[in-house]
Structures are given as C-alpha cells and as structure tokens.
C-alpha cells in the first residue's frame, strides 16, 4: 500500500464519520428532527411539506453515505452522491438565508470533490481504486508520480 493510498483512506474517514454520525443520531429522534428542520422553512418560500418529507429521508441518506465513505465503497459514486446531497442542502439553506451553513456545506462539497478526483488512490477499502495497488516504485508503477511515491522502504 502506498502512502497516497493510506492518505486517501485517512481523508475518507473524517467526512465518512461526519455523515454517519449525523444520520445515526437523527434516526433515533427522527420525528423531532424532521419537524424541527421543516419548521425552519415556515417563513421562507420553500414548501414546508417538501422540507418535512426530505427531513424524514435525510438521516437515512446520511447514514448510508457515511458508511459507504468509511468503507471506501464505490468512491466515485459515493462522493458524487455526497456532492449532490450537499447541493440539495445548499439549496435549502439559501431559502433560509443561512449563509454560514452554506459556507460549511461548500467545504463539504469541495472535500467530496477531491475524494472523487483522487478515487484511484482509494486504499484500505472494500473497493480499492486502480492506483491503490499499482503505483509503487519498482512494483508496477514507475514511481515518478509524486502522489504515488512511497518514500518509506
């Protein structure tokens, strides 16, 4: 395993646990969470009923996405799904004029986009990337790519 593959696995874990944790705790208080989230849209142009329906689904999406990121499963699809989810959240936050939340959500989107970009380095995963095993100096890769270089003997 290269340093790049290990680094990718380490980068996957924080955001994966963040999504997983968001979903996990919300499932146990699903009705209160959904009603609270929908209540945040009462004074906006966004339909409260649509917000309520989405709020009942969101924790399950977060849980599954988080688990997928933690396990490193289908990272391109998982990170793209994560970006799509974040875009939906940004859209809703815009109706609430919650600009500080949007800044955080944009960071999540960027983070997930980088996971998408470097998915070939996905290592320590249920579905490793193409370069997770290949790019090793003297063992399948040419060692000239700085991300794929393993400087440890």
TrEMBL record:
InterPro entries: DoxX (IPR032808). Keywords: Membrane, Transmembrane, Transmembrane helix. The keyword Secreted does not apply. It is found in: Membrane. It is a multi-pass membrane protein. Its main location: membrane. GO terms for cellular component: membrane. The chain crosses the membrane at residues 7-28, 48-71, 78-95, 107-126. It holds the Pfam family DoxX. It comes from the Bacteria. This is Thiosulfate dehydrogenase [quinone] large subunit. It comes from Neolewinella xylanilytica.
């Amino acid at each position: 395993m290269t340093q790049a593959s290990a680094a990718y696995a380490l980068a996957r874990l924080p955001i994966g646990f963040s999504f997983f944790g968001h979903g996990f705790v919300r499932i146990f208080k699903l009705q209160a969470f959904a009603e609270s989230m929908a209540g945040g849209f009462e004074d906006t142009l966004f339909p409260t009923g649509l917000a309520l329906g989405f709020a009942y689904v969101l924790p399950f999406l977060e849980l599954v996405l988080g688990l997928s990121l933690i396990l490193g499963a289908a990272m391109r699809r998982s990170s793209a799904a994560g970006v799509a989810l974040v875009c939906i959240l940004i859209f809703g936050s815009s109706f609430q004029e919650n600009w500080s939340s949007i800044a955080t959500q944009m960071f999540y989107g960027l983070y997930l986009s980088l996971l998408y970009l470097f998915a070939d380095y996905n290592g320590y995963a249920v579905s490793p990337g193409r370069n997770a095993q290949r790019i090793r100096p003297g063992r399948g890769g040419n060692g000239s790519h700085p991300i794929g270089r393993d400087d440890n003997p």
